[in-house]
Amino acid sequence: MPPASAGSNGSYTPRPAHERERIEAIEFAGSGTAEQDAALLVGDRALAPFNAPDPIKGAISAANQINDQPYRWGGGHSGWRSRGYDCSGAVSYALAGGGLINRPATSGELMRWGSPGRGRWLTIYANPGHVYAVIAGLRWDTVGLGRGEGPRWHPADFYPDGYVARH
Length: 167
Known about the structure:
By secondary structure, the protein is of the alpha+beta class. 17% of the residues lie in helices and 20% in strands. A five-stranded antiparallel β-sheet has the order 6-5-4-3-7. It has a two-stranded antiparallel ribbon with strand order 1-2. Strand 4 (130-135) and strand 5 form a beta hairpin. Helix 1 (54-66) crosses helix 2. It is globular.
């Protein structure tokens, strides 16, 4: 029998550019994220933009490591590795991956993290009871369809009312 790869073994000719499908970054209305600065959401993983600074690439990579973990209140606070993460544990994990924080922080502490206002690549939205991040245009949050489901990337607009924006 011929091997599974039987055929021309390397004579693949790609389709012409005008016939190929385009993959476009998800851009959020009002997010201020330029198309070249927007991460791609492929399945349930985020791909950092090529031009993203290393801390942003690190934060996205770290978030991908705990993506789809269950929600667990207090999760991610006694150590970086946990059997589940709450909102501030998940955001802290992503920030640590980018070298932007050195220990887990609560949502109240994240209300004072960084500088006030929205950032180009990363914005933390925090209030005393919840925190989430918008990283390269994608929302990193433990709230999905109105309930805590654990850390996930979301191709949806953020909800800044009632939150302090920090970058």
